[in-house]
Amino acid sequence: MYRIKQVTKIAHLLAKPVICEGDFVVDATAGNGYDTLFLAESVGPRGHVYAFDIQEEALKATLDNLKRESLEKRVSLHLSGHENLLHYVKEEVSVVMYNLGYLPGGNRELTTHYHTTLESIKQGLSLLRPGGLISIVLYPGHCEGNFEKENLLPYFKGLPASHYTVAYYNLINQRHAPPELVIVQKYLFS
Known about the structure:
The protein has one domain (7-186): Vaccinia Virus protein VP39 (Rossmann fold), CATH 3.40.50.150. It contains six helices and seven strands; from the N terminus they run H-E-H-E-H-E-H-E-H-E-H-E-E. The chain has helices at 7-15, 34-43, 56-68, 85-88, 114-127, 143-157, and strands spanning 24-27, 48-53, 75-79, 93-99, 128-138, 164-169, 180-186. The chain has a seven-stranded mixed beta sheet, sandwiched between helices. Strand 4 (93-99), helix 5 and strand 5 (128-138) form a beta-alpha-beta unit. Helix 5 runs parallel beside helix 6 (143-157). The N and C termini lie far apart (35 Å). The model has no long low-confidence stretch (mean pLDDT 92).
């Protein structure tokens, strides 16, 4: 059973029913590879995951996780910022996942940034198939993470309700600025 306070697991629970075997999906922030692994398992042997990170150590950790489960052939790893999605992904995708902030156990000075994250989200929305979703885990507990949150939330709020449903998951009784989750789902018909 998933603990409610693990918003990354909630993101998985919400994404799982949207992904069909054979789909194309994106992990826009590979990090240590947990979302990439989840996506690779979900798309099945005919699907494909595009995973992005700007740090070689993140892609190495992701590849190690994939190899342990023999899933590396389902994934292409890109040493590139997530603002470059459209340079690599040409197919319609069912899910795009973001786990913002810095690499756990890595250099805390290397974080995602609002302007590149926003550009990436716009690109992700353009790739998203009807019924598909984007999950964004926000980390407001550090300066850049809080800045990202404060600037991304108005963008999400401004998405047209005729095309998207946007949900915001915030743990209101936790201390120390816990992670928060935004889900954007594209309507089947608009």
